[in-house]
Amino acid sequence: MTTNSTLDRSAGIAVWRQIMETLKAEIVSGAFEKGSRLPPESELASRFGVNRHTVRRAIAALTSDGILRADQGRGTFVASAPLSYPIGPRTRFSEIVSGQLRAPSGRLIGSAVEEADALLAHQLGVPLGTLLIRVETLRVADGVPMIAATSWFEQSRVPNFVADYADTGSITAALQRAGISDYRRKETRITAELVENRDAQQLGLALGQPVMVMESVNLDMTGKPLQYTRARVAADRMQLVVSGEV
């Protein structure tokens, strides 16, 4: 186990959050393996030079995110590491989650048909006013909400998309039903913002917590824009990985 316990008390970041991020980084690196027991609060408090209440708050945050679990009378154990989410030409939530031995699922939260405004027309390469399908989805791994997303598709290309997604819980499968066998990522733009009220409820986050925002465009295999998505990611549960091949 790593013993690095440097805290920057002048950084403007709460000490408990620094402890939380340190422990999470150690879990990701393998210093604490899945199923292993975390040191007692008293030992962690001594390591970081803080009181047990501060350590307890960091542990509570990691427990809320599904990274740790508390077993009454036994201690605190590593439940799972934050999901590693590669960003590249082929980005598939279900494949990424399954590849890390977790169970992926998708939930349809809402949908509507709307006309393309200037932004959507540009992203999808369609004339202003083109009818689009907007879908609101929640992507889940092992029952833990990870991503709340809004996606737009040209309605004429995927007229039954809403029903197909509700049936399969998979964007890839729903597109295949529309005759679109494959697609690739054109670009992903990543920013950050504070979670909004509706997303906080869907993702199980407290208001004021940060989310990563991924704006992406997918192309069909002829190079035509197929999907524009604005996804809000629970920052404490997922690490975005961008390789040099992107």
The strands making up the biggest β-sheet line up spatially as: 4-5-6-9-8-7
Number of E strands:
10
Count of helix runs:
8
Radius of gyration: 20 Å
Task: Name the helicity range.
Answer: 25-40%
Shape: elongated
Number of domains: 2
Q: Quick one: CATH superfamily of the largest domain?
A: Chorismate lyase-like
Protein name: Putative transcriptional regulator PhnF
GO molecular function: DNA binding; DNA-binding transcription factor activity
Domain HTH gntR-type: 13-81
Keywords: DNA-binding, Transcription, Transcription regulation
Task: Give the SSE layout.
Blueprint: H1 15-29, H2 41-48, H3 52-64, E1 68-71, E2 75-78, E3 83-87, H4 93-99, E4 104-115, H5 118-124, E5 131-141, E6 144-154, H6 161-168, H7 171-177, E7 183-194, H8 197-203, E8 210-220, E9 225-234, E10 238-242
Parallel strand pairs: 3-10
Antiparallel strand pairs: 1-2, 4-5, 5-6, 6-9, 7-8, 8-9
Helix pairs in contact: 1-3, 2-3, 6-7
